[in-house]
Amino acid sequence: MVSNLLMEISGQENEQDILIAGDKWNPKGYFENKETVILNNSILLGRYALSNRLLRNPELQANSLIAKLAALSNINYLLLMAFPKLIDVKSKAYKAEIWQHSKRNDGRIIKDPRFSLLLEPWQETKSIQKIIFCFREPYEVALSLKKRSGSPVSVGLQLWKFHNERFLASISSSEGANINFVKYANFFDSTTIEAEMKCLYGFLDLPFNSAQAGQVSKRVITHSLKHHSRAHENYSSEIEKIYAELSERHANQGAK
Hints:
mainly alpha; two-stranded parallel sheet; 13 helices; 2 strands; 55% helix; globular
């Protein structure tokens, strides 16, 4: 949704042959560069990951067995959570490909949730000008993962912790990085959406246009696609700490 908004505001073309198409989970599309996702998937899950096969051949999604096996193969994330240093080891083998891909996409808006795990090797290319990070209520993310892949809520919460914790660690070691935070829930609240939209305009170095922002948000944001709305549950102290830091960074950048 945030990528869709950024592309609409900036005028970046939504190239259907480059971006991942929509499905029953995201009918409007994913606004993720297919090549980027395949490369990041290769680093994290292996070059021959079934999920990459599905991306290259979307018609295979009709094969329920292949789709289920691809979802099951994502269990490899649990191995990465147990041994996060594996990510750094694996990413070194793809250094040249990361550099080549960065050069091909210079100046473009590129979205992939996997960047939260792989930010450091991508930053080595010196091609990342800005980062915008959209964070969401942990329990909502866990429920979404459960609906989509059948993973237990407890696993979904650990995945949320893993991605957000590693991202925060990556930016803490990055001096001078231009990072913007937006809160997903705020786009669905009439009292907070304007502040988030202003953040998007700021990220794009564009003056805020209230009329355009209103038109774009009405066109892009579909409330019915927000399937889960849950307030804080009884999170672990580690998740509470991460969520508090994200909220603090969001508030301190002036998104009020």
